[in-house]
Amino acid sequence: MRRSTKLAAVVLSGSLGIASLAACGAKSNDTASSGSSEGGLKVGMAYDIGGRGDQSFNDSAARGLDKAKADLGVAVTEADAKTGEAEADKETRLKNLVTAGYNPIIAVGFVYQGAVEKVAKENPNTKFAIIDSASDTQPSNVTSLTFSEQEGSYLAGVAAANKSKSKHVGFIGGVQSELIKKFEAGYKAGVKSVDPSIAVETTYLTTPPDFSGFNSPDKGKEAAQGQLDKGADVIYTAAGSSGNGAIEAVANAGKLAIGVDSDQAAQPALAKYKNSILTSMVKNVDKAVFAYIDSAKKGSVFTGVKNFDLKADGVSLATTGGKIDDIQGKLNDAATAIKSGATTVPTAP
Q1: I want to staple 233 with a disulfide (CB 3.0 to 4.6 A). Which of 151, 166, 200, 332 is the partner?
Q2: Distance between CA 210 and CA 218 in Å, rounded?
Q3: What residues does 277 pair with on adjacent strands?
Q4: CB atoms within 10 A of CB 340
Q5: Contacts of 302 (CB under 8 A, 6+ apart)
Q6: Is 249 helix (H, G, I), strand (E, B) or coil?
Q7: Is 347 helix (H, G, I), strand (E, B) or coil?
Q8: In this structure, are residues 349 and 178 in contact, taking their beta carbons and an 8 Å threshold?
Q9: Residues of the chain with pLDDT > 70: what percent?
């Protein structure tokens, strides 16, 4: 699901800006005066692997950008990442957005941490935000937008444990990183809080520096089939668009899948599998993106680390399809315990 390039309709600051943005895969989402010198806010977004249309992480960020365009009247452009690209490609993508006058610039995903730090230091007058990463060494013009993924994943684990008939569930992570381990840790803790005897299968698709595990539906499908063959009947996948393949395998087997980041049962591209999607651990990246852009437009841009937890509605469980309605009381109790501090969810398995 890719949109056509509309840079020809965009008025950027000179032909060099147009050429450089086109080279890094930038796409304008404007209709008229993007990049004009009339003083409006121009927001650049650099996507993680999979980009807009992944039905998951990037799409959630895109919704926040779309809302900012519609509600705040900001001009926007978007740039895609490529599977297997070098660190220099990320740096070039960000530099091209700076050159074209976009400020602030939002980098979607922890894979941008090094590139953001370098480019931000070279361009102190440009504001940057990075999603899912925080570093003690990043400059003051970088804001980290982070989430308590482990808390939402804990609730996903509670749901899985209550719905599993075989007392055997699974977790699939896209890339074995500290971030995805938070999903794994929360999920396992949620499962064990209901029934410590339930077995939890764990599979990671790739390990750094190979990040293709976030954009390989075939790998997701194979991993899910392997867990199904071992007896798992509810599988939670935190793997970007790779999760689409896992959902397909689970649906074909007549079992239950748990989606991630976006409400995957509500995604048009996954409509034929929606009856097999128990719920999704929704990471409200859209709310974080919109809030950040709104703060920039108001002239009081967020600084430092801005974390969005369960209490702040940064993470939640989707209810599309009504498959968790019958256990909502148990989920509410678990959520209340987390919000009150009675339950502390681990961030490492």
Answers
A1: 166
A2: 16
A3: 257
A4: 9
A5: 129, 143, 145, 291, 292, 295
A6: helix
A7: coil
A8: no
A9: 89
What residue has token string 């931000």?
120
Dist. CA 72–CA 290, nearest whole Å = 9
In angstroms, rounded to a whole number, what is the distance separating the alpha carbons of residues 258 and 237?
7
The sign of the CA dihedral 339, 347, 157, 132 is positive
At position 248, the amino acid (one-letter code) is E
Summary mean pLDDT of the chain: 89
Helix (H) or strand (E) holding 106: strand 105-108
**What is the bridge-based pairing of β-strands 199-206 and 168-175?**
parallel
Amino acid at 169: V
Amino acid identity at 34: S
> What's the DSSP call for residue 239?
S
- Which pLDDT score, from 0 to 100, does residue 49 have? 87
Helices (H), the chain: 15-23, 57-72, 87-99, 113-122, 149-163, 178-194, 217-229, 242-252, 285-297, 328-340
CA distance 119 to 169: 43
- For residues 226 and 203, is the Cβ–Cβ distance under 8 A? yes
Q: Helices 15-23 and 87-99: crossing angle, nearest 10°?
A: 150
8 Å CB contact between 162 and 327: yes
Q: Which residues of the chain fall short of a pLDDT of 70? A: 1-39
Global pTM?
A: 0.83
Residues in the chain: 349
